[in-house]
Amino acid sequence: MKLACSYLVFALSAASSNAFSASPASLGVSQKLAAYPSPLHMSAVADETATSSAAKSSNPGDRDILVRAARGEEVERTPVWLMRQAGRYMAAFREYSNKYPFRQRSETPDFAVELSLQCHRAYGMDGIIMFSDILTPLPTLGIDFDVIKGTGPVISTEVLTEEDVAKLGDAENVNFDDKLPFIREILGRLSKEAEDANTSLIGFVGAPFTLASYTIEGKSSKACLTTKKMMMADEAGDSKAMSQFLDKLATMIGNYGIHQIECGAQVIQVFESWAHQLSPTGFEKFAKPAAQKAIKIMKEAHPDVPVIYFANGGSSYLELQKDMSADMIAVDWSVDMEIARKALGEDIPISGNLDPTVLFGSKEQIEQAVRDCIDKAGGPGKHLLNLGHGVMQGTPEEAVGWLVDECKRYKGKDA
Q1: What's the pLDDT band for 54 if we cut at 50, 70, 90?
Q2: Please, are residues 148 and 77 in contact by the beta-carbon 8 Å criterion?
Q3: If we measure between CA atoms, which residue out of 239, 221, 220 comes closest to residue 230?
Q4: Chain-centre distance of CA 271, in angstroms?
Q5: Sign of CA dihedral 246, 247, 251, 252
């Protein structure tokens, strides 16, 4: 195993300014993207992409084992994929991230397809996930963002008042093929790759509260203070900007999930990446209803496509996630899997939740952690194995292979 893979969410990229044909200060983000050199003129990249394909599984059941597990079915073994499985821990990934800006990589089909496939070729996870970002659909509402080296995502559009929300685009009638034309091509090509490799294709969206908070704060925030002030003003009846913004985002996100499904995604994961900023009360009053609305929109349109909900930092209020309307709940690494299983109940499918730092341990430690997590979730075939957060930069590449191999190998304590 020599290559590694790609994933998405907040994959804060290292970008070289020489990819622009004009000064960044003189261009808007959309203009910057248009000014990027076409990958079709980069022969090395084009040749690599043309020959890329995922690692093919010979077991017929592997084609949809992840999908079946996400629906809550007991399956023949525990399936596995990893959040941020396409990331900078891989040398092959860094060949792109060190040279090309994030949005160029995620919005150029040749790049995005290649980065999505690298990890699957190397490790054979049970799913290929589109390399993208949870912020990608924000421009459909008129919210622009960029990803700055050393800073991360920066959002320039101000949304603080009811008037600001009213100025945003129509969430009900977004034409995603017009606004985000690259998504259909990326997912269409990955769908064919997944079929050829006998595996599943995973799409994803950011949850409304997370996208709202990112927009309101303008960038990553330790305290999320402006967002919380808006929540308190909303509760007091002084301004309904927060609830109005969440509602608009929920509609757009739900429709974006539908678009991904209709482009080929077989599973959708909803990322509440900023759940750690919420008290149980804040979650119940603001984040939960908005996420439920987005999930409902997806499920009403495609009831057979499973939706996974992941609240990063939300393990202290797992009991409030039992009725999210999602098919599966993913849990972070801060809660013991056995406790999480009890909190949610045996009838709610669960995903997770290895500590990502385990991958810095020995082969024996990694394999034992995999076995322990599977056993605590109920045994092989009873849950979907994942990390409790994304693969960390600096993770040894071989460690990811050890994790995936042990998960696929393990038959249970009594085997």
Answers
A1: low
A2: no
A3: 239
A4: 6
A5: negative
Q: Across residues 399-407, what is the average pLDDT?
A: 97
Cβ-based neighbour number of residue 149 at 10 Å:
14
Cβ neighbours of 218 (radius 10 Å): 16
Quickly tell me which residue has 């305290």 as its tokens: 223
Q: What is the largest CA-CA distance in the chain?
A: 65
Sequential DSSP letters for 117-183:
HHHHHHH--SEEE----TTTTGGGGT--EEEETTTEEEE-----SHHHHHHS--GGG--HHHH-HHH
Beta bridge partners of 307: 268
pLDDT band, very low/low/confident/very high, at 94 (cuts 50, 70, 90): very high
Single pTM value for the model: 0.88
Cα–Cα distances in Å, from 303 out to 65, 169, 291, 298, 371? Answer: 18, 27, 16, 8, 32
Tell me the per-residue pLDDT of 162-191, one tens digit each, with 9 for 90 and over: 999 999 999 999 999 999 999 999 999 999
- Residues in a beta bridge with 385: 80, 352
- The encoded tokens of residue 398 equal 């071989």
Task: Give the integer Cα–Cα distance in Å for 142 and 31.
Answer: 15
C-alpha angle with apex 334: 354 to 390, nearest 5 degrees?
50
Choose among 245, 253, 275, 228: nearest CA to 157. Answer: 245
Beta carbons of 1 and 81 less than 8 angstroms apart:
no
User: Tell me, what DSSP letter sits at residue 356?
Assistant: G
Backbone angles phi, psi at 376, to 5 degrees: -70, -25
Preceding amide of 353 cis, omega within 30: yes
Count of residues for the chain?
A: 415
- Which of helix, strand or coil describes residue 89? coil
- The answer on pLDDT for 127 being more than 60 is yes
Question: pLDDT digits over 249-290, tens only?
Answer: 999 999 999 999 999 999 999 999 999 999 999 999 999 999
Amino acid present at 74: E
- Cα separation, 383 vs 352, in Å, equals 8
Spatial separation of the C-alpha atoms in residues 388 and 363, rounded to whole Å: 19
Asked whether 9 and 84 are in contact (CB, 8 A), the reply is yes
Query: Is 123:391 a contact under the CB 8 Å cutoff?
Result: no
Interatomic CA distance for residues 151 and 165, integer angstroms = 26
What distance in Å separates the CA atoms of residue 56 and residue 53, rounded to the nearest whole number?
A: 9
